[in-house]
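Crash report, auto-generated. Payload:
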Amino acid sequence: MIHTDILIIGAGPVGMFTVFEAGLLKLRCHLIDALPQAGGQCSEIYPKKPIYDIPAFPEVLAGDLIDNLAAQIKPFEPGYTLGERAETIEKQEDGDFIVTTNRGTKHKAPVVFIAGGLGSFEPRKPPIENIASYEDHGVEYIIRDPEFYRNKRVVISGGGDSALDWSIFLADIASEVSLVHRRNDFRGALDSVEKVVELTKSGKINLITEAEVKEIHGDGNVNAVTIRHKTEGNIIKKCDHFIPLFGLSPKLGPIGNWGLDIEKNAIKVNNSLDYSTNIPGVYAIGDVNTYPGKLKLILCGFHEATIAVQYAYKLINPDKKYVMKYTTVGGVEGFDGTKKVAKKSEIIKINLEPKVHALEV
Amino acid sequence: MSDITLHIIDRKGKQHQVLAPTDMAMNLMEVVRSYELAPEGTIGVCGGMAMCASCQCYITSDHDIPEMGDDEDAMLAEAFHVESNSRLGCQISITEQLDGLILELAPE
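Recovered output after restart:
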């Protein structure tokens, strides 16, 4: 069981900045994210895109923004549970919440912040009628252990980096790798494309372009797929595994079943006060929340996080008095023992002998 | 600059006639969102970066539309339900040439 003061669901920019504001109030944070790295959309979707509306940054790459936030919050030693999706929330008798991930990791905290952005990123599933019934029976959207495919016949579909890279990787492991792509060209990294072409020439990858997997066949487990080729019509391809790799898209997911007030795929919060949800102790900040006039901007999420943390402090420490301090005045004292503080202005004393000057008359 | 008229068929098949301004640097995806013709969170998910295809639409009228850029082309190579007249709404700016355009939102 992981214990913390504020449990943050979503390790995007807003969740990360919460760690800083909480740290100033001596509250410790732990972040959960379904993605294997922190940064949310900024890292996953557009790390190389510039953002122009972060105050005081005329231009910053989304990936650099995340690197900077990581550095800013490091002194507050946030914990991370990455690559796991928050699945359930249970209120305990002592008032705390226990949040459990899809992999069974349990987290206990008196306050939960949902900074889930657009939701958790999940694989985009091709619209094939019976695909759901074959999931984990030969259809996998994520390759967890390449050895699983040793000496198996594998069909991969997609045209991006992950489809290319896994085709290359599995070419040495699987007994047969077919890569099915709708176009004749690939948008992946140039060297990956070249490698796939090379492996196709040497017969290690069976490349089928201008084609799409349209049907899955099997009796409980996948044993073939129907590939529709643009000019040659349907091809039945025998295989043990079908791996569609079409990237990720965000879904609100299990949070939608936590009993929160949901409107327009977002969580309703009290924006006149503290960004609290209808569940006391649970707050929602950033793109995941909604209120009259809501703007899905990182800078607004930073504001929401800062306000909500003040109220979380009061909830956790009902008897303590506190007033907000400027970092310029109070500095930043990390849990790791580091302390940043404004330099004292130097005062140079000039020691001169006092002299009594005779008055000239 | 004046407003133009667009005919948008939503995902349930209902046609809407809407006005769109040509002077607000808007695109088709944003027009659909501003009239709430598709639920929030199901369109323009990536914010208009040609990175999610949630604003895919089929252009069914005979308008002269600017050609696809590389990002849009690459995204449509990976999207589902793609037809020969598929475009990403976020990549098409509202201009006077689009007056009378008919488009149909692709399935979610």
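Post-recovery validation: Helices of chain A lie at 13-24, 40-44, 62-73, 131-134, 161-170, 190-201, 298-316, 327-330.
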